[in-house]
Design a protein that fits this description.
By secondary structure, this protein is mainly β. It has two domains: 217 residues, no CATH class; 187 residues, no CATH class. The protein contains three helices and 32 strands. The protein has a 15-stranded antiparallel sheet that branches. The longest helix is centred in the N-terminal third of the chain and has 16 residues. The chain is elongated and about 85 Å long. The termini are far apart.
Length: 420
């Protein structure tokens, strides 16, 4: 009896002294995304008052074969049989827990962060990062084959005590989808501990516009806090891309700098340059905008450090015999011959629509002010943009402007990390 008691004691001692985060490496785990209820079976028929908090860790023991309806959300999910760290077993409905993903299904950008040990702070000094998912189906049609799949993907950080924090980086539903564009870990809050930088792009089922967002998360007092959220998508109209497409963000060891070329309705133009008003639909005035975020240690978040700075966009031509014209037309009056490589101010973008071989096309012009103070129109495709990270994107647009801005695409990365 004494030997048996000793064996049980040793087993329990080692079981409880091992880190709960090690379960991520040993078994199939899940984390609670909010407060969840543990039921005695895979149904809601029998009441339960056993609840677990957001961030609690579970071991997955089994799951139902079929998905079951959640009337409140009109979606279907599986039930999962789980074991808590305290040893309680029961069933949790699949809309409340994110289950560890299989390695082949993980985004290549996140594989370096899956099942990796990291050291943070505030109770997360000994932690593990891993990738988890909620998976189900929207319940719009009676026939499940017609229903779209539903999923949410998460980056999870679990500490040695079995508590987790999480970041949602991808989702898909009948309403639209969101995917990860970039993920990095850098100490941008100057506390000696890595923060999480995440850029996502989302699409609504009712629009072709790509909404791109940069978020930064910091671990504070044992919780994950979003310390910056910046929408990067630039628009020409509410639901159309700007030719500049996205804000450019540069992260350095002292600040976060944002710049973009703003295509705005001319009644909002704030710079001291005169311009003619030709059309409310075919023209947009242009401003070069910059602002900077800095870390506020008192507020524990990023705040705008300087007032938004608005300047004129600059450009040059590289060929001789380019004339400013009084109107956006090849046949209009010549105002001045521009000299190659002499900078001029770009004031306005104008889209001239014409028919060629029975097809509708766009020829964009720019309204500019020369070094001599004369103003007029030149074809956008002859301009080289100077003082912006968007120079290549804009040059490409003016060379081959699509008829619909919904067709605008680019491979350019608008995020730059100059951390030293």
């Amino acid at each position: 009896m004494n030997f048996r008691f000793l064996w049980i004691f040793v087993f329990v001692f080692f079981a409880f002294s091992s880190k709960a985060s090690d379960l991520v490496f040993k078994t199939r785990v899940a984390t609670a995304l909010n407060t969840v209820t543990l039921y005695p079976d895979s149904s809601y028929f029998e009441h339960s008052n056993i609840r677990f908090s957001e961030g609690d860790l579970f071991e997955i023991l089994s799951e139902t074969t079929l998905q079951h309806l959640d009337d409140a959300q009109n979606q279907k999910f599986k039930w999962y049989k789980v074991r808590s760290l305290s040893g309680q077993e029961g069933w949790i409905f699949g809309d409340g827990i994110a289950v560890v993903m299989k390695d082949p299904n993980i985004d290549s950008k996140l594989k370096p962060f899956h099942k990796k040990k990291i050291s943070l702070n505030n109770g997360f000094e000994k932690s593990v990062t891993w990738i988890a998912a909620i998976q189900g189906r929207d319940n719009i049609h009676d026939n499940d084959l017609l229903n779209s799949t539903y999923h949410e993907y998460y980056i999870v950080v679990t500490n040695e005590h079995g508590k987790s924090v999480h970041m949602n980086y991808e989702s898909q539903s009948a309403m639209g989808h969101e995917v990860l564009n970039l993920f990095q870990m850098k100490d941008v809050t100057y506390d000696g501990v890595a923060d999480f930088l995440m850029e996502t792009k989302s699409y609504s089922s009712s629009s072709d516009l790509e909404n791109r967002t940069l978020e930064i998360f910091s671990l504070q007092s044992g919780n994950l806090k979003k310390v910056l959220e910046e929408r990067m998508t630039l628009t020409y109209d509410d639901d159309l891309f700007s030719p500049a497409m996205f804000k450019s963000v540069e992260v350095s060891s002292t600040s976060i700098r944002v710049e973009f070329v703003n295509y705005m309705t001319c009644k909002r133009f704030s710079l001291p340059y005169q311009f003619d008003k030709s059309s409310t639909t075919q023209e947009r005035c242009m401003e070069f905008v910059t602002y900077t975020f800095a870390w506020d240690n008192r507020k524990k978040q990023f705040v705008q450090f300087y007032k938004e700075n608005r300047n004129a966009l600059k450009g040059i031509i590289t060929k001789s015999k380019i004339f400013l014209k009084s109107e956006p037309s090849f046949l209009s009056e010549k105002v001045e011959q521009l000299e190659p490589n002499v900078p001029f101010v770009i004031i306005k973008h104008f889209e001239k629509v014409f028919i060629q071989n029975g097809k509708k096309k766009i020829s964009p012009y720019l309204y500019v002010q020369s070094a001599n103070g004369n103003r007029g129109y030149i074809r956008g495709k002859v301009v080289r943009f100077l003082n912006t990270e968007h120079a290549d994107v804009l040059h490409h647009y003016y060379q081959k402007p699509p008829l619909s801005k919904a067709e605008l695409k680019t491979d350019k990365v608008f995020f730059e990390n100059n951390w030293k």
